[in-house]
Amino acid sequence: MRLSLAFGVLMLIGKAAAWHLTNSSSIFSDAIESVVHVAAVGFAAFALRLSRRPAGGRYHYGLERVAFFSAGFEGALIAAAAVSILVTSIYQWRQGLPLQRLTLGAGITLALGLANGALGWHLIRTGRRHHSLILEANGRHVLTDCITSVAAFAGVGLVILTGWKPFDPIVAILVALQILYSGAQLVWRSAQGLLDYADPEVERALRDALDGLARQHGIEYHGLRLRATGGRFLAEAHLIFPYATSLGAAHHTATLIEEALARSFAHPLEVTTHLEAAEDHDERHAAGHGR
């Protein structure tokens, strides 16, 4: 995250200089994206530090879910940048297009964009390896910044090649629409996490593993629930044992199942189980529990 923040500041300085040199709408869109990026990375770095605090005090489950808030904040900033680019590009198109020193500005923009692309790939790879939504979201934002730079280079390049200046604001508007979509995706993913959305593929993998373990130990289960925290998954299930099973034996089996699930799962997983007796299960529970 420190690397991302340092890159963000350098990118902002370079893109602002390129825009000052050229008065290009597409390069302006790239510079605005970098302003947003620096603000978003600063907040993401704070969120990452906060999410790594151990559970305790008033936060019994830790602060990992700040990752969803961070992703939503970053997505909202991206969307705001897109609106700003749209407004400015249309305004400059109507007011005239006093472009200048395009070759130099295009070269600076392309070089910065390629550097951002390498950083974005590194952040996404690191975020996936450590199951960090904050790093992955930041990496996707950096890649969006890279795409913006390449598009800005393309817009300026088309003007240089054809001499038709409207190519510049047209490309800027297309870039704005693309990053608006990217920002909306981040906001939607943030909302899903905050609302405890259970990914069907993750749930299916967990249920398949639990089915096999239940058969292996000769028991049944129900009430499986799953939630994501942004860095790991929390799951709970009710395990059903014969009434004659001692509490010690049932707890031992439940512990084996919890540990086996955590070891076999592709993501960091914490499992909590509740022990029940088969014979009086229906009496103890209200109707409506599905297995």
Question: What characteristics describe this protein?
Answer:
single chain; 291 residues; mainly alpha; Alpha-lytic protease prodomain-like; Alpha-Beta Plaits; three-stranded mixed sheet; 9 helices; 3 strands
Give an overview in words.
It contains nine helices and three strands. The chain has helices at residues 2-22, 25-51, 66-95, 102-129, 133-162, 167-194, 200-217, 247-264, 281-284, and strands at residues 220-228, 233-241, 269-277. The mean pLDDT is 83. It has a three-stranded mixed sheet, with helices on one face. The two termini are 43 Å apart. The protein has two domains: 2-194, Cation efflux protein transmembrane domain (Alpha-lytic protease prodomain-like); 200-284, Cation efflux protein, cytoplasmic domain (Alpha-Beta Plaits). It is mostly helical and 291 residues long. Helix 1 (2-22) packs antiparallel against helix 4 (102-129), helix 3 packs antiparallel against helix 6 and helix 5 runs antiparallel to helix 6.
Number of domains: 2
Can you count the helices? 9
Order of helix and strand elements from N to C terminus:
HHHHHHHEEHEH
> What is the CATH T-level topology of the largest domain?
Alpha-lytic protease prodomain-like
Strand-residue proportion: 5-15%
Helical fraction: over 70%
Number of strands: 3
Structural class: mainly alpha
**Radius of gyration, whole Å:** 26 Å
For the largest beta-sheet, the strand count, sense and barrel status come to: 3 strands, mixed
The CATH C-level name of the largest domain is: Mainly Alpha
CATH H-level superfamily title of the largest domain: Cation efflux protein transmembrane domain
Ends apart, CA distance between termini: 43 Å
Report strand order across the widest sheet.
1-2-3
Shape: elongated
Average pLDDT: 83
Sequence stretches where pLDDT stays below 50 over 5 or more residues: none
